[in-house]
Amino acid sequence: MSERKDEIILRGLKENNLKSIDLNIPKEKIVVFTGLSGSGKSSVVFDTLATESRRQMTLNYPLYVRNQMPRYERPYADLMQNLSPVIVVEQRPIGGNSRSTVGTYMDIDPLIRLLFSRIGQPPIGSANDFSSQSSFGRCPECGGFGEVIAPDVNKLIDFDKSLREYAVKFKPLSPSGWQGNWMMTCGLFDPDKPLKDYSEEDLHLLLYGPREGERAYAPFHTKNGPHNAEWDGLLPRFTRVYINRDISKLKQVSQDDVLAVSTHSLCPTCQGSGLNPEVLECKINGLNIAEYDQLELPEILEELKKIKDPMGESIAKQAIPYIKQLVDMGLGYLSLTRKVGTLSGGEAQRVKIARHLGSSLNNITYIFDEPSAGLHPEEVNMLIQMLKRIREQHNTVIVIEHNLSVIKVADEVIEMGPGAGVNGGKVVYQGQLEGLKNSPTANALKHKLNINKTTRDGKGYFTIREAKNNNLKDVNVDIPKEVLVTVCGISGSGKSSLILEAFKERYPESITVGQGGIGISNRSTMATYMGIMDDIRAAFAKATGQPAGLFSFNSLGACPVCKGKGVLTPEVAFADPVTIPCEACGGTRYSDEALSYRYQNKNIIEILQLTIDEAADYFIQQKILNRVNTLRNVGLGYLTLGQTTSSLSGGETQRLKLANQLQKEGQIYLLDEPSLGLHAEDDEKLLDVFQKLVNRGNSVIVIEHNLDFIAASDWIIEMGPGGGKQGGGQIIFEGTPEEMLNAETVTAKWLKDGVRKDLA
């Protein structure tokens, strides 16, 4: 009797662009899905396999529990069998608020607080009392923030201007807001006199309010006449309304707006910990909880291992595996108090992965969405070892990946394609790497690293002096203008601090394309995101004499039955949700009236069904053609104008965001890892876009780990030598790609290795 193979069986997969494909995925192996961006990888792995596994898992819970859980619709497939529970590690940035730290994200902080509440001396009370967010635990001086925030009169006020000329630079207190209007009309202040010409008494009244024991009446004028009110002073009002309250509840102003006109200094009472002094007196082996949190992770491990108290030892043993996981991922230089919002892309990716690896469960399917994103080639090896470790614990590892080093360690490779979008959705190859031939990935594996030997000369320099942002150590650098510059280095070495902070502060006119999302929704399309839709609607309105809103499914043109959604989701009580196409509009989202009008022989839906390439031949308006050509330049010509942004792959989203920024006319472009989510074949298209930008007289500065980008640069800056405060923050190399081949840095090692492979 032949041995039965344990594998996931998938038949007739039709989600998104999948062409009714069949797959058998072996269990307890590393299976890598690869292929061009938009070829169907995510449709198989996330939209089918992960969604169905989660859907079936929720069926095990009682109805009243399921009603509180996320509801999953059955994927569009004929058969899905032998699925195991899934753990998904996606590319999305780590969430959390401004207080979220590595310790809270990894669930280590609650264990440390519990430890101090049980064995700390002198004893305090409950574990919650060791939190800066509890009423007892927070510092009475700074309210738990660790910083004392106060308005900065020189940032808030321009003394050369009058109130009417926006002397108050904080928008809610300027003439555009009711409070600024009140200042100008209350009769206490001359709204047209520059503040520098005010008498000392009037200026004191404006800034600080009436002197002690005095009151200043300031009628508040409305359409119903004046109302009695008292003037309290600009700075006291700012402190009361915008500092001493939760400003996240305010709609017109953000925390960043407030901090921009404030000074913030270390709280003298808690020394930045945000904790009550009583809490800080409680110690374990001579360290209080704030000192614990400031230690680097290997030091915390040593402290936890010293604990011999039976109760404390049992708590410490629960925290140790999480901390070791972070250290094993090369993040030993982090502390528990490091804010997750300040992590680099590569650091955040590894913290996210580490969070999911503390489990001792097996027979799980782990799904990773480009785990190498944001990682230096030096760090990818750690990732590979971690993937192997998960497999050895009898788990299945499914990875969507473009990184050739990760593809090479796969037990099985599944390539989707042959193209992207409507040209993809098929299985091009399944099997071991050796059998992969005549496909984009096979070509990428044979791809030669081309060292740029004809580098451009810069036309002057961008200068940065004594940069101290985050871990930068008084960095001085001259970056050549009008060339392609790549800034590289391992995660946490200071690349983003140098370019996205120090450089951006010095040259605020730069156009930045970061790693953030694009705010996608199922009503947002390629045409609306790129600003093409307004011009299309205007063309229809001009040609037909109808209002432009009739040609929008978010306005007058919406199908009356589905309200412009294109689908209906009938109420099915406790059953899984079901989405069906709207029969009234056939899924087009438009009303019959909207579809009855034509422009150049096409109705609105026929125009939205045009691909970007077809649109370039259809339209004559230069404004539309400029934006369409930008999309073609980044390799998105195969997508349709009406494709929803929520259906795009990670690589497509990255290029759409890039196209949206490239249509702006600027001289300096800063790009944070633009190759994220892109296949090697797509990299070449993107590099071509950057080279053309430079040829037109622009400066392009790219933060990248991708060796193809580094090799093609005119100038390279490497940060390092390590990561974090101790190891990074210095420039360890400046020069051309050819000069880097003679350097002894981490990136140089991999560049030389790539050249040697090409010569072999």
UniProtKB/TrEMBL annotation:
An example Gene Ontology biological process: DNA repair
Record localization: Cytoplasm
InterPro entries in the record: ABC_transporter-like_ATP-bd, P-loop_NTPase
Keywords, sorted A to Z: ATP-binding, Cytoplasm, DNA damage, DNA excision, DNA repair, DNA-binding, Excision nuclease, Nucleotide-binding, Repeat
Residues of the ABC transporter domain: 3-449, 446-753
Record has Acyltransferase as a keyword: no
Family: Belongs to the ABC transporter superfamily. UvrA family.
Protein's name in the database: UvrABC system protein A
Organism: Pseudobacillus wudalianchiensis
